[in-house]
UniProtKB/TrEMBL annotation:
One GO term (biological process): methylation
Domain of life of the native organism: Bacteria
Swiss-Prot/TrEMBL keywords: Methyltransferase, Transferase
Pfam families: Methyltransf_11
GO MF entries: S-adenosylmethionine-dependent methyltransferase activity
Organism: Actinomycetospora cinnamomea
Name of the molecule in the record: Methyltransferase family protein
Residue ranges occupied by any Methyltransferase type domain in the UniProt entry: 44-137
Length: 257
């Protein structure tokens, strides 16, 4: 899977910038409301990335709780370790969590399982590390949910088709409910978190996503540098005619007692 998006220094920095936008800050607030963490709880943030959510959760569980931030990317772990919060940052993957069995109350994986080759194994790992009655929250995007206005819909479709190669399963939310149930969880009805950008604001998720997409799709799906740059320039030039939306799907599940 070396063909997927690599979370190297440059990509990690771009992801950190996108995840600092008001859109993603609001997404994290919704995630934390659904989790309803209590002081003293132990949490694992799987694929914690730049560590924003882990840091916010550390604040909520307080000095008697613990937040483990696990990520296989050294660049991401470096960013997470730099957050001013008492989080424990560890190397590890969703398929082999570096935690003992029945050691946490809550497991979170936001925008991570869609990058995982063996989702069944990852859900089994979440079950293993959760204490009886523990909660899991999994959030992923269905990349078919993108609605992105441009002046050349055929070119936008080519760019987005190439972008789908950046991860293992661009449509994971469609199968996550049954997969969680098969792993032994009680699954609540999923929620949707839409991201919607209209108008000329540039401090948005979609504006921040453009450089990540352009860097990834160059040379893929027959797209050359000029065509990719023309697409990026086109969506940027729309200014107050910008229209972008995309859906995140959130699953909250409980491990049996
Ligand atoms: C899009 S970022 C999301 C970061 C973070 N969860 C958030 O929502 O802010 C995806 C993260 O998943 C990590 N990742 C990729 N493959 C993984 C795997 N097999 N197990 C755990 N994390 C993985 C990447 O290194 C990256 O930090």
């Amino acid at each position: 899977m070396t063909d997927m998006l690599q979370f190297d220094t440059e990509t990690a920095r771009r992801v950190e910038a996108v995840y600092s936008t008001p859109d993603v800050i609001a997404q994290r607030a919704e995630v934390r409301a659904l989790l309803a963490l209590r002081p003293g709880e132990d949490v694992v943030d799987i694929g914690a990335g730049p560590g924003f959510l882990a840091a916010e959760m550390a604040d909520e569980v307080g000095p008697h709780g613990r937040v483990h931030a696990v990520d296989p990317s050294a660049s991401m772990r470096g960013l997470a370790a730099g957050r001013e919060a008492p989080i424990e940052v560890d190397d590890g993957s969703a398929e082999a969590l570096p935690l003992p069995s029945a050691s946490v109350d809550v497991a979170v994986a936001t925008q991570v399982l869609e990058y995982v080759v063996d989702v069944r194994q990852a859900l089994g790992e979440i079950r293993r590390v959760l204490r009886p009655g523990g909660r899991a929250l999994v959030l992923d995007t269905d990349w078919d949910s993108i609605v992105w206005h441009s002046t050349d819909d055929a070119r936008t479709a080519r760019v987005l088709a190439a972008w789908e190669e950046h991860l293992v399963d661009p449509h994971l939310p469609r199968t996550l409910g049954p997969a969680l149930a098969a792993a032994g969880f009680e699954v609540a009805p999923p929620r949707v978190i839409p991201l919607l950008n209209t108008g000329d604001d540039r401090d948005t998720y979609s504006a921040g996503l453009v450089p990540i997409i352009t860097a990834f799709v160059r040379g893929r799906g027959g797209l050359d540098d000029d065509e990719v740059q023309a697409w990026a320039d086109d969506v940027a030039a729309l200014d107050d005619a910008t229209f972008f939306s995309l859906n995140r799907y959130v699953f909250v599940a409980t491990s049996g007692r």
